[in-house]
């Protein structure tokens, strides 16, 4: 069994690395290779230091850099350095690590749009303030040549800034018009262009009014809304890519009795590969030789390892725990169950992207109405004024600006930003722009069990039923195994202050347990069928000393902090709760009873979880899925909205709409209440926007609002919408 680590593995790792790190390693003169490791438990600056310094001590490592946002380490090494060795080293010092396929992830780039919007917004603000200063001189009484000079200077500042800063609206509007559609960016772009164009026309004809400041104000406020909207979109990578990257990129193929390391893509059906203890299975296939136990929690959610011997089928992504195995390939690469799961996720993500937000629905009605209204104003005033194009165009521009959907554009992002800030303080991170709206519609919550409602760490619960002598022997045997139940026994015995017995000839029987000699007696710790014991319903392992009957050590998986409170709060808000798990029926039933969940299903494979969610949806339910494992990823993507804890596998976090940053599940109830309150605020903002238009549009149509006054009125409506959104920062009732 691996030596226990302290409560702060980052500190241990940093201390070890600091003692052993040299001045750096420049390489052996050969070409470097790039290895990417996933670090799902890394969460702070100390983790960065511990991982980077720790990796620097390993032979052949040239450099290591940790990206905490992506939870990845990028390592440059000499050729021949095994990625699995580095992953095992990090796991040994307290960091869970998996190798990722760099080729699969090479197309994934850091999202730069947020910085681009911020830059354009800053440029628009700079131009707006300068043009407004020049406008003060005009308003103060500058006339004729002086006024025209200030207008031309304003044009020199405003026109290039508008052309640069408003590009996001122009591009989206053009893309929509090319396919014969109207979106919110079409009236926005038209209002900006006409405001700037009419200002140039007025300036060229020595007109008294120019509206360059209005064009810049429009651009700035609309960019602010677009930036707020983008801040709610934190999905930088595809979950399907993350799943594919978890596939083992290389395998140990048996060729003429010798092992050869080859890319998994080169394996063919019928090839034989060797999988040593501690490594993930690279293919789907049948065990030809060897016996072991495998951890299937990534794929099925089973909390306990299962026996694997000749004739057993294994899947890519499972972890071999105790003995070497020879596996005959049945499927490799894109044909494996793991890759099919990635395909399920991709399909589910595509389906979810069809969800239409409230703002999009409003825009579908609003955009054509705005254009028709402005066109009608232009034609009407052209008739009334006897063909005065300047007056008719000014009024049409004022109508376009005053009805510009800036408040509508802010209605959703202002609320979701305020709500996401509230939820962040409660330990939740929103990752999807429409997550808040979809969460508010939820009436059925589906939980995974292991690692979600429970800690996924079994604890010995009948320590007091055993004598100190038995515990000493069990503790000694358990020290020699990496099995999670053995680890639980070893920990419990150590914490009870019992010294392990002196054992000799310790031998682990892969797939069964451990045996040794104590004095003249053979002692064994392992499966019931191996020891001839009657198996009980609960999770258990068994100790046999000499010819004495085997005794059972039973275990429970502790509930995650806040699990009971979360289930109670969700039920209180009218939600039905279901537990769906790949674990054994007894374990699932136990957790369901402890939490008061009446509807529970056990033994569910990933495809079965997706099917169960589809069944609930067809019955009229709007489902929230809460899960943490690879086996939950497709279901998380298929659900109407999904949440995963921060301790979840990277792929599960990526596909989820909301991530729980802390250990507790208690904030789930507050998340639902906040989302429902946020949706109410969004609808209020739409009402404010509509009320503003009811008052402002007649004023513009009658010719009482200049384009500048229209821009100021539009800005006031935007500020009102933002202030209403800020009410969410108060207490949600």
Question: Brief description of this entry?
Answer:
By secondary structure, the protein is of the alpha+beta class.
Shape by Cα distribution: elongated
- Compute the CA-based radius of gyration: 32 Å
Number of strands: 26
Low-confidence stretches: 1-23, 106-110, 232-240, 347-356
Structural classification: alpha+beta
* Mean pLDDT over all positions: 78
Total tally of structural domains: 5
Strand order of the largest sheet: 14-26-25-24-15-22-23
For the largest beta-sheet, the strand count, sense and barrel status come to:
7 strands, mixed
Q: What count of helical segments does DSSP give?
A: 27
Strand portion: 15-25%
Amount of helix: 40-55%
C-alpha termini separation: 50 Å
Describe, in plain words, how this protein is organized in 3D:
This protein is α+β, with helices and mostly antiparallel strands. The chain has 5 domains: 9-100, Alpha-Beta Plaits; 113-231 and 355-415 and 677-729, no CATH class; 249-334, Calcium-transporting ATPase, cytoplasmic transduction domain A; 426-455 and 559-676, Rossmann fold (3-Layer(aba) Sandwich); 457-557, Calcium-transporting ATPase, cytoplasmic domain N (3-Layer(aba) Sandwich), CATH 3.40.1110. Helix content is 50%, strand content 18%. Strands 14-26-25-24-15-22-23 form a 7-stranded mixed sheet, sandwiched between helices. Helix 15 runs antiparallel to helix 26 and helix 18 packs across helix 19 (484-495). The radius of gyration is 32 Å and the shape is elongated. The model is unreliable at 1-23, 106-110, 232-240 and 347-356 (pLDDT under 50).
């Amino acid at each position: 069994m691996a030596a226990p680590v302290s409560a702060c593995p980052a500190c241990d790792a940093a201390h070890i690395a600091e003692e052993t790190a040299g001045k750096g390693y420049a390489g052996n003169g050969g070409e470097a290779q790039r290895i990417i490791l996933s670090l799902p438990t890394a969460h702070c600056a100390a983790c960065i230091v511990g991982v980077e310094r720790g990796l620097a001590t390993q032979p052949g490592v040239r450099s290591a850099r940790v990206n905490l946002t992506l939870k990845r380490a990028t390592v440059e090494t000499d050729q021949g350095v095994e990625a699995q060795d580095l992953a095992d080293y990090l796991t040994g010092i307290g960091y869970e690590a998996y190798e990722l396929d760099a080729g699969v992830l090479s197309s994934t780039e850091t999202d730069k749009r947020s910085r681009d919007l911020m830059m354009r917004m800053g440029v628009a603000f700079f131009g707006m303030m300068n043009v407004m200063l020049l406008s003060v001189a005009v308003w103060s009484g500058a006339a004729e040549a002086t006024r025209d000079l200030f207008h031309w200077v304003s044009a020199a500042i405003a026109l290039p800034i508008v052309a640069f800063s408003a590009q996001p609206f122009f591009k989206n509007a053009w893309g929509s018009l090319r396919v014969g559609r109207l979106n919110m960016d079409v009236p926005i772009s038209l209002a900006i262009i006409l405001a700037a164009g009419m200002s140039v026309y007025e300036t060229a004809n020595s007109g008294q009014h120019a509206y360059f400041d209005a064009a810049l104000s429009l651009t700035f406020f609309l960019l602010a809304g677009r930036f707020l909207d983008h801040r709610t979109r934190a999905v930088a990578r595809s979950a399907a890519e993350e799943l594919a990257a978890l596939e083992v990129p290389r395998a140990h193929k048996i060729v003429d009795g010798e092992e050869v390391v080859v890319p998994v893509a080169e394996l063919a059906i019928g090839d034989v590969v060797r999988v040593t203890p501690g490594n993930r299975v690279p293919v789907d296939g049948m065990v030809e030789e060897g016996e072991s136990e495998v951890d299937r929690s990534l794929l099925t959610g089973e909390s306990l390892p299962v026996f694997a011997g000749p004739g057993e089928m294994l899947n890519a992504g499972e972890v071999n725990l105790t003995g070497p195995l020879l596996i005959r390939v049945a499927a490799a690469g894109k044909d494996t169950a793991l890759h099919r799961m990635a395909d399920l996720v991709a399909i589910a993500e595509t389906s979810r992207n069809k969800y239409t937000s409230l703002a999009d629905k409003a825009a579908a009605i609003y955009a054509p109405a705005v254009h028709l209204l402005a066109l009608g104003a232009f034609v009407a005033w052209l008739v009334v004024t006897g063909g005065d194009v300047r007056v008719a165009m000014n009024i049409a521009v004022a109508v376009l600006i005053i009805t510009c959907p800036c408040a509508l554009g802010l209605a959703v992002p202002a609320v979701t930003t305020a709500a996401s800030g509230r939820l962040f303080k409660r330990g939740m991170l929103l990752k999807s722009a429409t997550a808040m709206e979809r969460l508010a519609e939820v009436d059925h919550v589906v939980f995974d069990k292991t690692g979600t409602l429970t800690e996924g760490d079994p604890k010995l619960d009948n320590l007091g039923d055993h004598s100190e002598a038995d515990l000493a022997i069990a503790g000694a045997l358990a020290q020699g195994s990496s099995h999670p139940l053995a680890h639980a026994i070893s920990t419990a015995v150590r914490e009870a202050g019992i010294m392990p017995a002196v054992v000799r000839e310790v031998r682990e029987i892969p797939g069964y347990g451990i045996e040794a000699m104590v004095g003249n007696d053979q002692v064994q710790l392992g499966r019931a069928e191996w020891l001839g014991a009657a198996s009980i319903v609960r999770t258990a392992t068994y100790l046999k000393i000499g010819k004495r009957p085997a005794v059972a050590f039973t275990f429970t998986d502790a509930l995650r902090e806040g699990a009971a409170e979360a289930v109670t709060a969700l039920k209180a808000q009218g939600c039905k709760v279901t537990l769906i798990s790949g674990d054994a029926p007894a374990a699932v039933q136990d957790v369901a009873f402890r939490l008061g969940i009446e509807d529970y299903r056990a033994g569910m494979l990933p495809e079965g979880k997706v099917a169960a969610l589809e069944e609930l949806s067809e019955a009229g339910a709007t489902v929230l899925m809460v899960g943490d494992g690879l086996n939950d990823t497709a279901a998380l993507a298929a659900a109407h909205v999904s949440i995963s804890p921060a301790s979840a596998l990277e792929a599960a976090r990526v596909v989820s709409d909301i991530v729980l940053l802390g250990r507790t599940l208690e904030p789930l109830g507050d998340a639902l209440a906040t989302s429902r309150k946020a949706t109410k605020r969004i609808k209020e903002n739409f009402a404010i926007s509509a009320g503003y238009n009811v008052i402002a549009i007649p004023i513009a149509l009658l010719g009482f609002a200049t384009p500048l006054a229209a821009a100021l009125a539009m800005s006031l409506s935007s500020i009102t919408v933002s202030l209403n959104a800020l009410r969410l920062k108060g207490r949600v009732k």
